[in-house]
Design brief:
There is one protein chain. This protein is of the alpha+beta class. It has a domain at 83-168. 27% of the residues lie in helices and 28% in strands. The chain is built from four helices and six strands; from the N terminus they run ββαβααβββα. It has helices spanning 50-54, 83-92, 99-114, 153-168, and strands at residues 29-37, 42-49, 62-69, 118-126, 129-136, 143-148. It has a three-stranded antiparallel sheet with strand order 2-1-3. Strand 4 (118-126) and strand 5 form a beta hairpin. Helix 3 crosses helix 4 (153-168). The chain is elongated and about 50 Å long.
Length: 171
């Protein structure tokens, strides 16, 4: 599940358009694409200039994408991702068999709980482990079940950092 150094491996943004190879400048809008990485059974992040994306450039194994802005170098960055992107990732990772992806989904659920976009309803002991039952807030009638991968605190911190790197590019 973890890499050689104990961290979960998710590639960071390279700061270059994956289609043209051109450098993406601070303040530029771009499209961040999360795609399957068959070598690690995880995800890779690729960034595309808006022009390349609009022209139809897409990576193989595209899983999800969102619009973001290239941060200023050495600037303290906050992960500013639309709530819908996180909810979409939670939905899209449902039923994943890969342990890293299940763990990634669990951390997304923790982030959504912390942001109070979903609420914890109950937990259930099952043959495969502890299952959390979550539901949407407000008018939402959405529900989710999330398998708790029994991560320790260090694993959760590492996955949270990796999620931030995937969504923002730098932390």
């Amino acid at each position: 599940m973890a890499g050689v150094d104990g961290r979960y491996q998710v590639a960071r943004s390279t700061g270059r358009c994956a289609s043209s190879g051109e450098a993406l400048q601070p303040g530029d809008a771009c499209i961040a694409a999360l795609c399957e990485d068959p070598e690690s059974d995880g995800f890779a992040r690729l960034d595309y200039s808006v022009a390349a994306w609009d022209a139809g450039a897409r990576p193989e194994g595209l899983f999800s994408f969102w619009r973001t802005t290239i941060p200023e170098p050495k600037a303290q960055t906050r992960v500013l991702v639309e709530d819908d992107v996180l909810l979409d990732l939670l939905d899209r990772l449902d039923g994943e068999a890969q342990p890293r992806r299940r763990a990634f989904r669990f951390v997304i659920a923790l982030v959504l709980l912390r942001k109070r976009l979903v609420k914890f309803d109950r937990r259930e002991e099952a043959q495969e482990g502890v299952i959390w039952h979550l539901s949407g807030r407000g008018d939402s009638s959405a529900t989710w079940t999330v398998l708790d991968p029994a991560l320790d605190d260090d694993d959760i911190v590492d996955l949270h950092e990796q999620l931030g790197e995937v969504l923002q590019g730098e932390l």
